[in-house]
Write a structure and sequence with these properties.
45% of the residues lie in helices and 14% in strands. The protein is an alpha+beta fold and 404 residues long. It folds into three domains: 90 residues, no CATH class; 108 residues, Butyryl-CoA Dehydrogenase, subunit A, domain 2; 151 residues, Butyryl-CoA Dehydrogenase, subunit A, domain 3 (Up-down Bundle), CATH 1.20.140.
Length: 404
């Protein structure tokens, strides 16, 4: 985190500019959508609206290189942006295209692909789903089986992808497919950019523990995509996939800010009545100890990120240190959701389905502050699995950082 006393006059002016932007653009509905975000994406329509507002201001993807439409913000300004986002809670945008696929298009795409896809990702015209996991290929991603056979100028796809977040709203999917069988299972994998409106693609919903439709299974039955939509060379998609996984598995300044937000939320709820008799858990010395422990862990996480943030490189050592930090942050995030449930008390047993949607009201049986923690807890159970299990991340650290 940043001590305001250390900010330069230029940085303070930037902070004021950001605050003014939020004050002028965050409508009550957009604020509610941000507050009711259970995973890493808000209700789609509100996220789409917010991306368009960001794009109009020139802040659609501040972390992109300037030549592709990003900003020239300093590391301090990016931290200010992250902190103000945590305070103002805008809708969380469906970011798989902007934050995961776009860097791969920048690194491996042709000039034509970059000109075609990047502006539409930035503006919010196109929305991307991630086609990685399959029913028999999760953390062991290289075991994927979705076939893509070359027929003339097209690839013909047969198979399925699963746990495809927000695919029901996606216009496109970046997809790992198998174009051949090799001795090494990472060989023969190709990275494709797929139009989700193509014939032969079917999306079936999967509801999470909270009953929310976030995930999907996507079936491909003779679906065609042009060979011109291949990113990188045929059979070398694993190179592109590794680039994307480095982004997805690594940590960033937003992670620490999100943990701080959850900690503040926990302290707020713990200070409110939770048992129907006027008592609050904040008065319990044992629970205060739990809060103190996670607060110290958040401080340690921030301190470690400050040591790494100015030295993020594409080579192995620093990236693996960030991945190690990311493992810890995921676990800490889970612990905070568990404490939120404890602080909510018996009110957490009340069904809150309507309260999860923008415009929906919490049931009369409980106080307003108890409307979200249960659904948030249930949704966040996937946090240490999504993007690769903690065991896979630890194996990566053991091999690449410790040399084991």
């Amino acid at each position: 985190m940043i001590d305001p006393a250390t900010l330069s006059a230029k940085d303070l002016a930037f902070r004021d500019e950001v605050r003014t932007f939020f004050a002028e653009n965050l409508t009550p509905e957009l604020r509610e959508a941000g507050r009711k975000t259970l995973w890493h994406v808000s209700e789609f329509e509100y996220g789409r609206a917010w991306q368009r507002i960001l794009h109009a201001r020139g802040w659609g993807a501040p972390h992109w290189p300037v030549e592709f439409g990003g900003t020239d913000w300093t590391a301090t300004q990016r931290m200010i942006w992250a902190m103000e986002n945590a305070v103002h809670r805008p809708p969380a945008v469906m970011n798989m295209g902007r934050d995961l696929c776009a860097p791969c298009i920048m690194a491996f795409g042709t000039g034509e692909q970059q000109a075609r896809y990047l502006p539409r990702i930035l503006s919010g015209e196109d929305w991307w789903a991630q086609g990685y996991s399959e029913p028999e290929a999760g953390s062991d991603l290289a075991s994927l089986k979705l076939r893509a056979e070359a027929h003339g100028d097209d690839y013909v796809l047969d198979g399925s992808k699963i746990w495809t977040t927000m695919a029901q709203h996606a216009t496109h999917m970046f997809c790992l497919v198998r174009t051949s069988r090799e001795d090494r299972k990472q060989g023969g994998i190709t990275f494709l950019l797929v139009d989700m409106n193509s014939p032969g693609i079917e999306i079936r919903p999967i509801r999470n523990l909270a009953g929310v439709h976030e995930f999907n299974q996507v079936f491909f039955t003779g679906a065609r995509t042009p060979r011109a939509n291949r990113l990188g060379e045929e059979g070398e998609g694993w190179k592109v996939a590794r680039q994307l996984l480095r982004v997805e598995h690594g940590g960033n300044i937003y992670d620490g800010v999100e943990l701080r937000r959850r900690l503040a939320w926990l302290e707020e709820i713990a200070s409110l009545e939770s048992d129907g008799h006027g008592s609050a858990l904040i008065d319990d010395p044992d629970f205060e100890t739990h809060i103190a422990k996670v607060a110290v862990a958040c401080e340690a996480s921030d301190a470690m990120m400050r040591l790494l943030i100015d030295d993020l490189r594409a080579d192995g050592t620093t990236f693996m240190q960030v991945e190690l930090l990311n493992i810890r942050r995921r676990e800490l995030g889970q612990r905070l959701t568990e404490l939120l449930m404890m602080a909510t008390g018996h009110y957490g047993l009340i069904s809150q389905d309507d309260a999860l949607r923008v415009g929906g009201a919490a049931p009369k049986a409980g106080p307003d502050h108890a409307a979200l923690p249960t659904a948030f807890f249930l949704t966040q159970r996937a946090a240490t699995i999504a993007g690769g299990t903690a065991e896979i991340h630890r194996n990566n650290v053991a091999r690449h950082l410790l040399g084991l």
